[in-house]
Amino acid sequence: MNTIKTDLRGAIVKSPFFWMSLPVIAALGLWACGTDSNDEEPTLKIESPANGSTVAGPNVLVRVATTHFSFGAAGAGKVSAAQHDVTGGHVHIWLDNSSRLDGNTVKDLFTADTATISVTTPGVHYLVVGGANANHDDVEGMEDSVSFTVTLP
User: Taking phi first (over 0 means left), then psi (-120 to 50 degrees means alpha), and beta for anything else, what does residue 75 get?
Assistant: First the structure.
C-alpha cells in the first residue's frame, strides 16, 4: 500500500525520483513539439525607422530583420511550395499606400536587409514592408508597417 507523505503544512512531499525526472520530461516535451526550423514560417520586422520616430530626410534608411528568408535577386532563386525557408527572395516597400491593391504602387524593392529610400515630402509617412519570393508573390504573414515623421533641411 502506497502512502502519501505530507509536510507540516499538509503539502504533498515529492520523492527525489520525481525531481530527478523533471529534466527528462521537459526534454521529451520539447522533442514532441517539433523544433525543426523547416516547420517555421518566414517572418519580417521593420527595425528602422522605428514606429513613431522622427528622421531627417530626404534619404531614409529602411532596415528589416527576417527569419527563414534568404535574399537574392528578384526573379532568381527557388521557392518551396510551402514557402518555408524562402531563398532568392526580396522585400517590397510601399510608402503612403497602405492598401497595396495595385502592384504598380511598390515604392521600391531591395535584395538585402537594408535600403535607402527617398522621401521628399516632410511630415508623417506610412511605410509597409513585405517579403516576396523570387517571382514577386507575397510571402504570407511576412509583413510589417510603421508610421514615422520626416524632417527636411
Answer: left
In the numeric block, which cell numbers belong to residue 131? 517579403
Specify the CATH number for the domain of residue 84.
Answer: 2.60.40.10
Q: pLDDT category, 14, cuts 50, 70, 90?
A: low
How many domains does one find in the chain?
1
- Bond prior to 58 in cis (omega within 30° of 0): yes
pLDDT tens digits, residue range 46-83?
Answer: 999 999 999 999 999 999 999 998 888 654 444 444 44
CA 38 to chain centre: 15
Please report whether residue 105 resides in a domain: yes
Query: Taking a C-beta distance cutoff of 8 angstroms, is the pair 128, 49 a contact?
Result: no
Domain that holds residue 102: 39-151
**Measuring CA to CA, how many Å separate 101 from each of 17, 56, 98?**
61, 29, 9
Which grid coordinates are listed for 15? 520523492
Separation between Cα atoms, residue 21 and residue 40, nearest integer Å: 30
